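Q: What structure does this chain adopt?
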Amino acid sequence: MKYGLLLTLLLSFTFFIAAQEKPLSQTEYVKMLYALQKNPGMKPDVVEALRKRGIDFALTDGIRGLTRSKGGNDEELRHALEEADRRRQNPEGSKLPSERESEAVLEKARKMTLEAVDEMPDFVVKQQIQRSAAFAGTNNFRNMDQLVVAVSYKSSGEENYKVLSVNGAIQNNPEAKSSYEEVGGTSSTGEFVTMLATIFKPESQTKFDVVDTDMIRGRRTIVYDFTVDRERAKQVLACKGVVMDSTVTGIKGRIWIDSGNFRVLRIESEATDIPPNFPCPTAKRNIDYDWTTIADEKYLLPLLSDVRLTIRDAGKIYETRNLIKFKNYQKYGTDVTILEEDSKPIPEEKPNQ
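A:
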């Protein structure tokens, strides 16, 4: 009897594993979405199932709409679903490279990225910044304000910010600052070089794992998870709660490397090792890169950045979001002008398809 029971349990476990390895059916995925609506904490499990198991059904606008409504309009969930559909349609083209091939891509990417960091030109760029806030986990963001900021970057790594307008109101004689926190609210810096250098410089001892393939703006990419320990990343996270506080964190995330020229087209990062009682329990930043021309030379520079920070306040947790569009890269010393279109809302669509 004991052996019969053991055999039954082993068979049940085998069938369970086999079911887990099969692609998600539409019925199974829809059930997950309804369960996710009741328990948002399930999101990592749903995303992992999409990435590991994939789907066996055609992705329709109806399923996309249900994913947005039941998944709280979560970007990571939507992207994981699109990735699963792409793999369903082209399984051969979505195969992961071998360990040897993936390591070779990483080494080429490291070399190309660090060379590009050293060769970064002096330039100015206009940032259109849309700032919003929501209760954490709802993704129901309400716009707070919109800024137009001129950023001057020098190859030495120095960044200076001038706030040109706030909600369409022109700021007279703005002064250069090390950030745009003078207007209050959440600010961010370091999109141009800091994150890339931290990930790829040898002393960071970054740990990489190849996890997927993807298409970004028509370019085939190889996707890696990465982790940098706190002692080596030394990322400073500043948070303004009741009082201003700061801490040093590590980082983890995911990078998309162009398999043709070995340049990074997208980074998703998150702060790690945040102290339990720190007023900002999470900090995330996504950066999309694209080619732009400055003084007749092409450079890979930020196109769009999405910065999110959660803040504890009076027993509640809020999430702030800075959606930053980088426009009109020009050589250093060029005047940055404000156009009528700069006051228009930044569209939600991400340039990663």
